[in-house]
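Newbie here. three chains, one complex. Structure please?
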Amino acid sequence: MNRDPSPFRTASTASTATSPTPKYANLTASTNLRYSLTRKSIYDRHLNRTKTSELSKSAFAFLFGEMVQYAQKKVYGVQDLEKKLNLHGYAVGQRFLELLLWRDGRTAKRETRILGILQFISHQLYRAIFQKQADTLEKVRENEDEYMISDNDPVVNTYISVPKEMSQLNCGAFIAGIIEAVLDGHCFPAKVTAHTAPNEMWPGRTVFLIKFEPEVLEREALRVGS
Amino acid sequence: MFLFRLRSSRVFSLAVTMVVYAVLILNKAGGLIYQRDFNPGLQKLSSNDYLILAGTFHGVHAITSQISPTNETSSSGLEVLESENFVMRCFQTLTGTKFLIFAEPRQQNLDVVVRRVYELYADYVMKNPFYQIEMPIRSEGFDRHLTSYIKPHQ
Amino acid sequence: MSSTSRARLGEEVWKLRTDKINAELVTLTYGSVVAQLCKDLDGDYAEVNKQLDKMGYNIGLRLIEDFLAKSNMQQKCANFRDTADVISKVGFKMFLNITPTIVNWSSDNKQFSLLFDENPLADFVELPDDGKAQSDLWYSNMLCGVIRGALEMVQMSVDAHFVSDVLRGNDTTEMRINLIRYIEDEMPQDDE
């Protein structure tokens, strides 16, 4: 995971959430930050406060679109753009994973098998973020180290029409980044890429191709042996 | 023979099966940014003629919005244009974008159609990061949703 | 349209005509955008503010159409006070499910403030502890740009900027909006 953490942590981590006696957070923490005396700091607010909150899908679409446009200015070609979107997704995925596991509390389970972690992603994670499950989860027959998760209508692509000259592009790379972060967070390092795979019913159907690093398969083989 | 009608004299009647011939979208400056036929019925024009049609309509619209016969300070301008062969409904948004719907004569609920087209435009054109505003619309998603909305109305 | 009926309209559009999405996805995505800018611009927060405003402006130019299409508003606001009311009760309501409070009108009715009791963009956020972010960065600055862009499309030239933010240790989050002028319509406009 050679990724820099964001310049600032959007403190959604379990460690900060459970920091003791938030009342004195501004005194005890080694920080020079100023806190409002009359307003609750993030340490005082319950992390579940926004668990079921909703915003408009339009707001997200505009934000996401602007993110794509900004990224597009600074890249050479489609692959580079997808990489940028992947990194954005990665930052989001890291934080979502923390939130999710923290919310599971004592029932949180550490997935140690490939199938287990993939199911966690296509069920729990997908439900938490997108309010639906992923549509399919399959193994790529020819390649031992590859799996596919499909989404008939990825929420990030609803309003996007990719121009013909960029037909290789799938902005679902953002979701691929989320998946990658969750896999990394569980020590299943992998490359995840998004590919457009339309069918009659679903013109925007997207397949997330997950290619695990060799060590993941080695470990899996050991466990199967035991 | 044309009949100009301003908003105040809108006539209501029961909806009948609807045939929409074409949808045009004009940007603020009167440039044609979208033109699509959905059903046969209108004459085919060259792309240059479509641009002239758009520009001319833009001018006529500007005039009609300034010569309102009533004393109201502002007028919405030309909204409906009817002939024996077709009816055209124009909807200008507060941003100055114009949506023109051409349909069979005596269609009465074109208001609903034009509003829906505006919503689809807001969704599949405005939210598409690959669309540059004020420029011609090339958006597969917009085409697809527009077709599936307008075609069942036959 | 009265203030109450605008509140009702905002509520109605939010409830019946708005597709929803997980709020945390939006919050975290916005955070990722701001963090990326801080990195790209090497911690020059004044530049980050500018870029956020610019991105917001681009959004505003587009978002206005969505706003008008979904709210079905077809009449121009009679005055700037009405505009403020619509921004808060219909605009913010339908996109971010909040209704910032309108306060501090100037005597000429050309300036007001929006007070954000809630700010979904800033949930989970603490600014970097680098000695300058809290004095230089306006984390939610994109919102200013959105308002500027959206109003420009309906013939109002405004200036919008934050004057306080709880993330900076202030007791309020306040945005100041100032009407510069109404842009004459119908006449050909100068290209920017």
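Moderator note: The longest strand of chain A covers residues 190-196. Chain A touches chain B through 16 residues (CB under 8 Å). Thread marked as resolved.
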